[in-house]
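Here is my example:
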Amino acid sequence: MTRGARVFWTGFVLHFKNLSASPFMMVTAAIWPLVYATLAFLMFRATHQAPSLLYAALGAAVMGIWSTTATSAGGAIQQQRWLGILELLVGTPARLILVLAPITVAIAGIGVYSIATTLLWGRLLFGVPIHVLHPFLFAVAIPAAVLSIGMLGLVLASSFVLYRSASNLSQALEYPIWLITGMLIPLSLLPGWVHPLAWALAPTWGMRAVRRAAIGGDVGVPLLVCAALTVAYTVLAFLLLHHFERLARDRATLALT
């Protein structure tokens, strides 16, 4: 394992454990998605033209992952500033992206709790049949979707290094992104001008891969597009972090005061 991979993996495990011990994060990741799921189940049951309840369950679960990332990615970096260690993290020998990426990916990673609780909730209360057509591809699609959401969160979180109030941006984008990526509402029901925006967002393809692995359909293309966009997000995050780090150093805005 290379040095960069060790730094990323160690940071991911550390932050994943810390977040798993946080009552707030566990409520956000495991309990709040149940509200989404319940509303989705009730709406889908009210019409015969809606997709299956498993479709709704998976959408609500991934919505929980994105909501957790959107609301907490900036807060996690801001917390490093409040603790007075953001300057130390920026000054470490490792590149800044290797220090901050584990935070956002770990935040998205605890979203696996939302998948487990949402599917269990749907099964016990609404009788949702949990039958995955392609278990192996499903096991691959979930980490791909989580990683894509984590890297999108890193792109948004990169501005938090420079701007202390930038968390308002990610919170404002929470609902528009889960709406246009088809996490709950099929893209076919949205206006045509929304589709190009959805195609540029990796969670769209990650969500599509998860659903097709579970319900049926081609999984390869969504997985490949999701992976390609995740790589693009990584490059974009690297460039943004480098730029914002330089500006933060010039303006001395890393510290709280």
